[in-house]
Automatic annotation (TrEMBL), chain A:
GO biological process: microtubule-based process
SUPFAM superfamilies, per database record: F-box domain, RNI-like
Listed name of the protein: F-box protein skip28
Domain called F-box: residue spans: 176-216
Species for this entry: Quercus suber (Cork oak)
Pfam families in alphabetical order: F-box
Amino acid sequence: MEGSAEEELERRSKFLSSLIQKKKAIEQEDQHDYLNVRVRASDMPLALQNRAFRCARDHLDSMPSKLDSKRLALALKKAMEFVHVKKATRERGCAAIDGKREVIKVLSFYKAYVTPLSHSYFEFLLPILKPTDMEISHVVEDNRNEDMQDSQTLLSSKSCVSSQNEYTQEVEPGPPHESLFLVLAYLPLFELLAMSEVCMSLRDAVHNDVLLWLNIIVERPLSSRLSDGILMKITSKASGRLKTLVLINCEKITDDGLQLVIRKNPHINKLFLPECTGLTPEGVIRAVKTLSENHHGLESLRIHGIYNIKKDHFDTIRSYFQMKLPQHQRQQPILFHHRNSPKFRNEESNPMIDIDVDICPKCNNVSMVYDCPRETCKKKSCKACNLCIPRCEECGECIIESEELEATACGDNLCSNCWLQLPKCNFCNQPYCKLHINHQHRLSGSTGFVCDACHVKFVATLGACYC
Amino acid sequence: MASSSTSVVVSNKEKENKNTKKVTLKSSDGESFEVDESVAMESQTIKHIIEDGCANNEIPLPNVTSGILSRVIEYCKKHKEAAGESEPSVTSYTSNSTTNPLTEWDTEFVKVDQNTLFDLILAANYLDIKGLLDLTCKTVADMMKGKTPQEIRETFHIKNDYTPEEEAEVRKENQWAFE
C-alpha cells in the first residue's frame, strides 16, 4: 500500500519538523530569558538576532549604570559588520543583504534616532513597554559605504518614549516629532507648503490629509502670488468639502476664478476676501448667491477693501444673509481697536458678525463702521466709518474735536491718554502705535528707540557712533 | 451692610465644600496626582473614563510623564478657575485680548523648551483638552511663520530625507509660492 506509506512518511516528517520547530522556539525563548530580552518584531534571521542580542547584552553589562544608547548602537553596528550590505534604498531604508531584503530596526529612547519609516511602528509601541532591560524591536541597517550619520542603530528602554527630556539631548537631525503632524492643522497655506518640502513623511502627511485642506488661509507672502489656477488646484484638494476660504489681499483673484471655486465647494461657511482688489461687487454677489442657494451654509463674509461697493450691492448681499437667519439678531458692535486682532481677521471670527461692512450712517458709503467704546458715547449713536469719525488707534474711542491731535511717528491717530502711555522716540518725542511697533530702531548703549524718520535723518548719516 | 457681607462669606464656603470630589491620576513613571474631579474633567478622555464608571482607584495615563502631567494639571486648574469667575460669555466685546489676564498667563505657560512643548501637544491630544491643544499648536505654528523649509529643518532638527530628484520635483510643484 504505497499511498498509506507515503502518507505515513509525510506525517512523520511533519511531526519531526514540528518537534524541531518547538525545540528551536524553546531554545530561543530560553535565550531571550537568559538575556532578558523581549522581541517585538523582527525580520532578521534567528542567528543574526541572537548575535545582536548577545552583543548588546555584553555591552550593557559592561557599561556603567547609565544607558548610553549611542555607544551601544555603535557597538551593535560593529558586531553586524559581517553582513554584506548593498546600497540602501531610501524609501524602505533597508539594505539588500545577499539579494534578500532584511529590515532591522531598533527603536531608541532618543526620538531623534527614529527613522521616518518606523513612524508607524512608533505608534504601535507607544503603550506601556514591559519592564525588560532591553527591548530590541528594529534596527535600521546601515549602508557601510555611506558615512556614520546614516547608521541608525537604536535601543529603547523601559521608560515611556515621552520622558526623553530627562536625558541630555543630542541635537542631531532626525525625523520630525509626532506633534508636528498635529500642528499641521493650524498652519496657513504658506507654512503648510514649506512643511511639505521639509521631509518625506511630512510631505505625505500634508498631501494625504484632507482635513488640512478644508480651511485655507492665504496671507502674506502668498497673497500676491496666488492666481486663479493655483487657487483652483489648492481648493480641489478639499474634494468639495471646503469649509473656510480666507484670501487676504489676493489681488490676482478674479470673479470667474472665485466663482469656479465656489461652484465646486458649495458648503463654504466662512468666506473672507478682504482687500482682494481683483474682485468686483457683482462677482461677490454672484458668489454669495451661489452659496445661499444650496444650504444657506454661508455664515460670515468679509469684503472690506473691495472697490466700488455701493449701497444697492450691499443691500442685495444683506438680503441673502437675512434669508438664512429669520431672527433679528442685533449683531455685536465692531470696535475699532479690535480690527487688527487675529480674532477678528481670520482666526475665530466673531460669530455675531456676518458681514464686516455696513452703511455708514453719516456719509452713506459702504465701509467698515465702528462703535465707540467710550462710556458716554454708548448712549449716543457714535457709530460711523473711520473717515467720518476719527478714532484712536489704540483704544478705539472717538477723538473729540476740541482736543488737539497729538503727532505720531506712524501718522495714526491717538487720543491723548494713549499718546501719553506709549514710549516715544528719543529725538522727536513721537510714539509709534502698537501696530507699527516694529518700526522702532533700537540703539545699543541707550534705552528707548528712534523712529524711522529720525533714524534716517540723524543716525544713518552720522554712522559710526551708533550701531 | 454687615449682614450682606457675611452672607457672601457663607455662600463661598458652601461652594468650597461642594467641590471636594477628587480623582487620582497616575503618570507613566508611577507618580500620582490628586486633583478635583471638575479640574480633571477638562480632559475629555478623563471625563469619559469617569462617566463610564471605570475610575475606581486611579486613572493610569501611560502616555504622559509626571513632568508633563503636572503642567497639564496646572493648565486645567487655571482655566477652570478662570471659567468659574468670569461671565458666561468670556469674549465680552469690551475686553481687549491683550489685557485679558488669562492670555498673559497662557503666553507664560508656553515659554518652555521645544521638547516640553512637543510633549505637551501629545499629552493634550491624548487627553483631549482642546484649549491646551490649540494653545500649544498655535505656539509651534507661530514658530514656523515665514520660515523656509531649510529654516524649519534647523529649528526642529528634522533630517532631510528627500532624494535630489524628489526634492527637485516637490520644489517645482511649489515654485509659485516661493518665488
